[in-house]
Amino acid sequence: MPNSRKTTTGSTTPSTSAARRTAEFTGFRPAGLAFLRALRRHNDREWFGRHRATYETELKEPLAALVEEMDVRFATLAPEIVGDPKRSLFRIHRDVRFSSDKSPYKTHVACWFHHSDAGRGVGASAPHGGAGFYFHVEADRSSIGGGIWMPPRPTLQKIRAAIDDDHDALGAILREPRLRRFGGLTEEHALSRMPRGYPATHPAAPLLRHQSFTIGHELATRDLFSARLPDLLLRDYEQILPLVRWINAALGLRVVTRR
Q1: Nearest C-alpha neighbor of 243 from the set 209, 221, 212, 205
Q2: Residue 160, by phi and psi: left (phi above 0), alpha (psi -120 to 50) or beta?
Q3: Mind listing the domains of the chain with CATH numbers?
Q4: What pTM did the predictor assign?
Q5: Strand order in the sheet with 81-82
Q6: What is the bridge-based pairing of β-strands 132-138 and 142-148?
């Protein structure tokens, strides 16, 4: 899993009024996936500049409309989770400062729905981040997910402390039949040994070895083209919500009943 009008220093409550909405989500189109496929072969600024209009109309604009639609739905499902069409979208530009791969652009688009009291960042560089929901589109592989991905050490320590204190609660969530279709927590970056301070005999050893706490699954391409995609996402996110709320509770982030 791997960038809401919320900033890392404060929070605001997004408006969901009809006046704020600028577009209706009607589905992505094959032209958007074709753009991403071509970007793999022509990952340079000159090519992207000539095809920027396609990126804007076929990917960025429908993704922003999807975020807007999901924010309206989260207002009922989980009011503490927010999406903003300007800030929930991850930038397509890559940070190449410390990478040997200097390709300037990502070959996917994605967005992140996060807790309104947390920062919108994701990963080790997001010290104020919490758990949320993710949506990802590639030319030949798209997916959804939820949880928290590779949090910084202080955040990870809080989650492990909560597991140590009451691992049965998290275990019960993960054993829910409705989560079986997600295949359990992803094993990405899981430690081969126990983290420092926890014995190998700990009853929650498998959970404590995780450095990410995410679940998800791939989407069928036909779902991307459907105007009913928000309904499909809402169904899946509702099933993942208990995990997201457990993680956020471990981080001191509240459940909200209304905006």
Answers
A1: 212
A2: alpha
A3: 18-250 (3.30.930.20)
A4: 0.88
A5: 81-82, 108-115, 132-138, 142-148, 213-219
A6: antiparallel
